[in-house]
Amino acid sequence: MAVTITNDQIMSLRNQTGAGIMDCKAALKESNGDMQKAIEILRKKGLSGLAKRSGRTMKEGIVVLKNNDSKYVMVELNCETDFVAKNDEFVKLANEIANEMLAKDFDPSKDEKAKEKLNSIAIKIGENMQIRRGVTYKKESNSIIGYYLHADNKKAALIKVSFSNKPIDVSKAEELAKNLAMQCVAMGAKWVKKEDVPKEVIEKEKEIYKEGSKTQGKSEIALNKMLEGRINKFYQEMCLMEQVYIRDTKITIKKYIENVSNETQTTLTVERFETFIVGVE
What does the DSSP assignment read for 107-140? Predict the structure, then answer.
């Protein structure tokens, strides 16, 4: 009796050996679904490891961002080539997953049904694919969700901004949220404010800087001063509130938010944000 070979088995063997999809399928059939025997079969045929893709980063893909009333979702799917990133089936599945996320709360990167659908396309096209990540934001009575999706469908951001009382001009607060989402995509902040950066990250930055040639032979006082400057620069690059506002480089994002808060007679606060850029952590 023939053993049924699943898409997950084929993709698992492909990731372990780097062999082609059809070769993996044939080896699994020959081994009656035994993974180790299938690996041996591929090795004997000289197909294992020739084009190993398990170590290759899938740097292409698509980001889909959708909203429905007060719910906003963002999902990223990866593949190997830009050509496949524009494939109709690939794009359609990304949109279907986003629509499902609007209908119910779930993590698409861990959903077996979603992964099975993607694997079916991967086997058909012959390229590695993955559902890298997904996130859901919900607007509440005291918050605004800002969003931005770049025209290339490879970069997007969601940001949640809360207010202490209803702004006298809600449109200005909404504009701020959208501008902040654009800022996130353009400047690649990882944290909202300095206090959010883990201590181990700062210590690692100090360690890296200390080992640099510029610090060699410096006194402890001079070194500490240099480290302080380096960490401040790190905050300015990686913390949203410390960044220079891209639409007015004379002010920081913190000052921009303060200005709009004053204009709208409320206190606006960035609660969280997520930025998805294909091929970037």
Answer: -GGG-HHHHHHHHHHHHHHTS--EEEEEEEEE--
